[in-house]
Amino acid sequence: GCVEDFKGMLVGRDPTRIEFLWQIMYRHSYFRPGAIAATAMSGIEQACWDIMGKSLGVPVYALLGGRVRDKVRMYTHLGGGEMKAVYETSEVEPLLERAHSVIEKGYGAMKVVFVPLSQPLTGLPAVRYFAKLVGALRREVGDAIDIMIDFHGRTMTGQAIEYINAIEEFHPLFCEEPVPPEQPDAMLEVRRSVRVPIAAGERLATRWQFRRLCELQACHVLQPDIGHCGGL
């Protein structure tokens, strides 16, 4: 439906004027684009880059300054794409079983989502159980496999800090979205209070939502989602 709404602004225009078209979609929309509109913009913008590359007979990366890397390291969630397994792995045995499945597929890094849906302060039993899961996973996969913890913005500042400090000894590669993504100042407070790297950004749209994170240096890893943030 959002793509249909953009049609009236775009049909009949030159698809190679990519930034011009992007600005039309962003500026001519009455409400500032959120996740849904930015997702529609991402698809249209990437399609325009594809048209541009095909018209010139070159890959899009050549138009953006050329190839930088020969390969990119990959990671995956537990569950192989099954969302229930991704979000509901909160028992030790299924956790370890799914971790082995990921390693058998050749991955050297995995991301897990088992931070409980938390109140602002949950209490010690939840923290202990969370640390138990992370510890069991680290002991099972060893030091050569990187582990990332996705908080999905489920915790507030104090609770996030307590959770992260409880698992520091297991050396996660990063903790993602320890607080809701629209709270960059809270993200900065978490970053300053823990020694585990902080990641954020998959639920932000357009460069302006990333601006405050960057100005504050509120995280170590930026994670723009190319399908939702507004495009290339």
Description:
This protein is of the alpha/beta class and 232 residues long. Helix content is 49%, strand content 8%. The protein is built from ten helices and six strands; from the N terminus they run ααααβααβαβαβαβαβ. The protein has a six-stranded parallel β-sheet, covered by helices on one side. Strand 5 (198-200), helix 10 (206-216) and strand 6 (221-222) form a beta-alpha-beta unit. It is globular. The two termini are 22 Å apart.
Helix-strand sequence: HHHHEHHEHEHEHEHE
Distance between the termini: 22 Å
Helical proportion, percent range: 40-55%
Binned strand content:
5-15%
Q: What's the total number of strands? A: 6
Largest sheet: 6 strands, parallel
Please state the structural category. Answer: alpha/beta
What strand order characterises the main sheet? 1-2-3-4-5-6
Low-confidence stretches: none
- In one word, what is the shape? globular
Report mean pLDDT, rounded to a whole number: 93
Q: Number of helical runs?
A: 10
